[in-house]
Amino acid sequence: MEQTFIMIKPDGVQRGLVGEIIKRFENKGFYLKGLKMVTVERSFAEKHYEDLAAKPFFPGLVDYIISGPVVAMVWEGKGVVLTGRKIIGATNPAESAPGTIRGDYAIVVGRNIIHGSDAVESARKEIALWFPEGISGWQSSAHSWIY
Ligand code: RTP
User: Fold this and answer.
1) Residue closest by Cα to atom 16 of ligand 1
2) What is the Cβ-side half-sphere exposure of residue 127, based on CA atoms within 13 angstroms?
3) What is the per-residue pLDDT across 68-78, written as a single tens digit (0 to 9) for each?
4) N- or C-end of the chain: fewer Cβ atoms within 10 A?
5) Alpha carbons 55 and 95: distance in angstroms, whole number
6) C-alpha angle with apex 13: 118 to 88, nearest 5 degrees?
7) Phi, psi angle pair for 16, to nearest 5°
8) CA–CA dist 7, 113 (Å, integer)
9) Region for residue 99 given its phi and psi (left: phi exceeds 0; alpha: psi -120 to 50; beta: otherwise)
10) What span, in angstroms and rounded, lies between the C-alpha atoms of 49 and 85?
11) Can you give the pTM of this predicted structure?
12) Annotated catalytic residue 115
């Protein structure tokens, strides 16, 4: 089953949006398969964003990601990579539609509260980077108990 990596960035954590963000993915029907709060080192943030190393905003982006704890998550479900990006909204919150996470809760691109993998392959790389210990492979057994 498809999985994606979602990270609530330091501003999302500090603004108390963790529950709201998790709620949106749960309400959609996706399964939470991994979750941890971590403050990452500069070298780790640089590795996560290595594809953007040549961009002028890269140093500021790395400073932002290491400025406080982030919530790292693995979400699972059919089409979760693309649908997750739709739930999150456009990179620049000024262009994110209302109803998306960034459209509802962010204003500027430099503080856009959440990251989501942009493809199945990058999701695989990011999950391996952020969860080298692996994630539990639980399957729902609640369906027959919930009416
Ligand atoms: P993310 O990786 O965080 O989900 O964001 P994304 O794919 O929507 O956007 P990407 O182009 O990969 O950029 C990664 C993050 O860099 C910051 N950014 N700042 N012009 C700027 O100042 C600028 N452009 C991008 C944002 O935090 C963006 O999410």
Assistant:
1) 61
2) 23
3) 999 999 999 99
4) C
5) 20
6) 30
7) 75, 35
8) 9
9) left
10) 17
11) 0.94
12) yes
